[in-house]
Amino acid sequence: MKRYVLSVLVENHSGVLSRVAGLFSRRGYNIDSLSVGETEDPNISRMTIVVRGDEYILEQIKKQLNKLIDVIKVMELKPEHSIYRELALIKVNVTPEQRLAITGIAEIFRAKIIDVASESLVVEMTGDEEKIAAFIGLVEPYGIREIVRTGLTALERGDKEIKQRKKYEEE
Amino acid sequence: MQGAKAIVQCLQKEKVEIIFGYPGAAVIPLYEELRQSSIEHILVRHEQAAVHGANGYARVTGKVGVCVVTSGPGATNAITGIATAYMDSIPIVIITGQVKRSMIGHDVFQEVDITGATEPFTKHSYLVKDATEIPRIFKEAFYIASSGRPGPVLIDIPLDVQEEEIDFSYPEQVVIRGYRPTFHGHPGQIKRALKRLQTAKRPLVCVGGGVLSAGAEPILQQFIEKAKIPIIHTFMGIGAFPTGSPYYLGMIGSHGHYSANRAINKADVVLFIGARIADRATGGSPQFAQNADIIHVDIDPAEIGKNIGALIPVVGDAKEVLQVFAEKIEPIEPFDSKEWLEETEKWKSRNLPPQPTEPGINPKYAVKRLSQILDQEAVLVADVGQNQMWAARNFDIYGKRKFFSSGGLGTMGYSLPAAIGVKVGDPKRTVVVVAGDGGFQMSLPELGTILQTGLKLIILLFNNQRLGMVREIQDRRYQALHGVHLDHNPDFIKLAQAYGFDGKQVTTYEEMEKAFQEAFTSKGTYIIECIVNEKESTL
Q1: Nearest residue of chain B to residue A8 (CA atoms)
Q2: Domains in chain A and their CATH numbers?
Q3: Which helix (H) or strand (E) holds A138?
Q4: Which overall architecture, per CATH, does domain B3-162 show?
Q5: What SS3 class is residue B472?
Q6: What is the pTM (predicted TM-score) of this model?
Q7: Residue among B120, B178, B305 whose CB faces A11 most closely
Q8: pLDDT tens digits for A7-26?
């Protein structure tokens, strides 16, 4: 099973998220993450959906998404032409003696310490999934209390915009 | 004007003449406006029947069928009808009442999230949150329901939205940026398809319900006769092509004809048009179209490649694409097409006509006989179960005849309310209901609707005192039966009489013929109850 990243422009009104999410569960598609937010046009939201499957399933997902009236555009963002980012907040156990070591790791990863308590601290970091996974691997020995992640969000590199892309069927 | 009046104005702008419905507290303002309008209201006896009625109406008229139900249980009762229409791609608009906006989400009396509940089987749905949105939403709803691949669209309207004052103006155009169905097939793809067809040795055309919803039957016939290609169809494709044609090979699938199934396994090129080729069509057979290059024409791109891989996909309206095909195709003669036609003819001779066997009435023969004496504009509406296949396989299609049934969802109880919709939509047509004693009892209350509207239907009821299709499966798989016996059926003829209809129970073919004649001459609805041997098989 391969992983694919889809960028989906949708109408920004209530009910759209449930339609999209419902489609995935109903048709048995595996979804790794889904993130959504408003775009430069307040009437349009953009979803980044990470799915798992084969070429056939990807094709089906794209077509079924396109059938939803509220879906304006569906585009696959391939890794070689895209930027993938995710934000994670990680609460790590830490003794005063260990603080410096963790700060050092965070610095290498260009992560920020955004909260410090007597026995823990919270690291904020962005990056692609591999970077986040690497960071988690390094701080794991200290004891991770909580992790929260936004899910992947992605954008195509270069001058092109998704809106200039043709509708899926015409590609 | 009030929201409710605006709704009625929208309906009139969409040329709606008839609505199927069942009122309730959440649609009272709308009913008051309907009362004052020219729109005729057919009061059904259960909300599901309102949706099936709109379904039958849409299928016979080609227009969008409309139904109205109230919130809560009214809306949930409609659900099976909505799913039925969705699976068969029937254009209908369902208007549901909803509790007041301020009460939504509080679990108040007769509140249900119907847009949420029906989301998987509506083409689209709306919850109207502001009465000013009514004109746009109705314009969009009718457009979405009837264009592209047709389907049901639901509009949920809170009670206080119906009472809100707005300035009414109906939009001229629909602008939905996420919805632009492709009508014209891609010229390059059409060219490739034609080229492949032209060089085929054993070509075959297989059509589905898409041909009927596009109104492409005449152009299909032209194309087939010009190209000289044998044709088969799916269950939903019944009525797309005359059964008497020399090119006609029958229906495919587990309940299909030998000749059709044989042909699809042997063909080297199959052109599918408006068919999604679901499990019932393939019968799950690995041999299905195994030797064939597939050309697949469908207006819904998601259907191409879903159930069967296509060498040449063509996204477009069946009628539009067939017009180009019919114009550009050359007769496929230079190759061994003649041999192919002769071979298919041989298979066809194995589709034996049903005989008047005994004991009881052979239902296949009964449908065949009725088909022989019905006029060329008759509509047969079949229920679900054995009766559906008895009807499907033995009702001949020619002229303007139509065959309607619940194909995708397989909804028992569909036939009677759908037939009401058909008769209301086209009163001049002879409308025949074919039902079993199981499904008929699911929609029995609709006899009240028929009585109230004074419609004339001919009801051919097959009474085998069994849920026959389930019986057959149990018998085959477990050699034991459970829960399929209907040994204590009511006296159906007395029941008909209670509603003021005539009817006859028939056990011999002589009685059957007489009952057919009486049914034709009877002023009102007439029920012919055929006593069928419980062991009668589907095929």
Answers
A1: B178
A2: 2-76 (3.30.70.260), 83-149 (3.30.70.1150)
A3: helix A129-139
A4: 3-Layer(aba) Sandwich (3.40)
A5: helix
A6: 0.95
A7: B178
A8: 999 999 988 999 999 999 99
